[in-house]
Amino acid sequence: MLLKVEDLHVFYGSREVLKGVSFWLDYGQIVCVVGESGSGKTTLLKSLIRLNRASVKGKAIFKGKNLLELSEKELNRIRGKEIGFIFQEPSLYLDPLFKVREQLLECCEEDKKKAEEVLREVGLYETDRILNSYPHQLSGGQKQRVLIAMALIQNPSLILADEPTTALDVSTQKKVLQIFRNLKREGKSILLVTHDFGVVAEVGDYVLVLKEGKVVEEGDVYKIFENPREDYTKELLSSAFID
Ligand SMILES: Nc1ncnc2c1ncn2[C@@H]1O[C@H](COP(=O)(O)OP(=O)(O)OP(=O)(O)O)[C@@H](O)[C@H]1O
Ligand SMILES: [Mg+2]
Fold first, then answer.
1. Which ligand is nearest to the CA of 196?
2. Residue 52: enclosing H or E segment and its boundaries?
């Protein structure tokens, strides 16, 4: 088992936003987290690597270590390298002052070839132009793919991905999902937040349905699709397929 989260509680100030979440993730598995806006999906991902100013209780055992108890220094050794992340708002995670080249190469000893390879993997073929661009010179979808490339380049064993395909057109989305399937085949794991049940169906193994900070339903993907128990899950499913 790669990650085991046990009874995770997260508070912003005195407000409890995650109320005892438990799940686990095996090597080569994609666990999807679905739930309405505000249910705590982003909070869950960020809390695991302590990227928010929240207080946490519970356990998140990753490769035998409780992430929730690590020092900032220990976490910095894990962030990016062992646990990669792709967040919802790419603009917030790309530094406007540095070209893509600097941000992508920062982590991997100036290996330009590797940088070009991951850019192509995410469908950014004009590698020179992209590497020499500042974030504001890229479209939203390109920025999102640069972030995905930044997550991939360090070859982490776990990726936390928050709506990674939302800003992408259908064909790029397909590419990214193919990358996720390849990662899975290599034994990498992904905790994937999405509101898109199409994405869940294509790459997910297991689904957690989050409502107001609690897991209200969970199960194998086919089970959730074929036989959702909770009305909330049924609603999420039906609203996903209306438009
Ligand atoms: N930094 C923060 N400080 C205080 N409250 C926060 C903070 N971030 C999120 N919240 C609150 O925590 C709750 C969960 O937010 P979160 O961002 O985790 O939801 P989400 O499920 O990711 O929603 P969405 O689908 O809209 O991205 C919300 O009520 C939100 O207002
Ligand atoms: Mg969110």
1. 1
2. none
The pLDDT tens digits for 169-193 are 888 888 889 999 999 999 999 999 9
Question: Which residue, judged by its Cα, is nearest atom 14 of ligand 1?
Answer: 40
Phi, psi angles (nearest 5°) of residue 190: -135, 130
Task: Give residues (CB < 6 A) around ligand 1.
Answer: 12, 17, 35, 37-43, 52
- What is the Å distance from ligand 1's center to 53 Cα? 12
> What's the CATH code, domain 3-240?
3.40.50.300
**Domain boundaries of the chain, sorted by first residue:** 3-240
- Look at residue 189 in the predicted model and tell me its pLDDT: 98
State pTM to two decimals.
Answer: 0.93
Q: What is the mean pLDDT of residues 39-46?
A: 96
Model pLDDT, residue 110: 64
Q: What does each C-alpha distance from 8 to 20, 44, 59, 215, 216 come to in angstroms?
A: 5, 9, 6, 11, 15
- For the cut 90, the answer to whether the pLDDT of residue 238 exceeds it is no
Which residue's alpha carbon is nearest to atom 16 within ligand 1? 40
Which of helix, strand or coil describes residue 191? strand
| pLDDT tens track for 133-161 | 999 999 888 998 999 999 999 999 999 99
Cα(2)–Cα(5) distance, integer angstroms = 10
Q: Rounded mean pLDDT of the chain?
A: 92
**Ligand 1 pocket check: which of 42, 50, 163 to mutate, most ligand atoms within 8 Å of Cβ?**
42
Question: What residue's CA is closest to ligand 1, atom 26?
Answer: 37
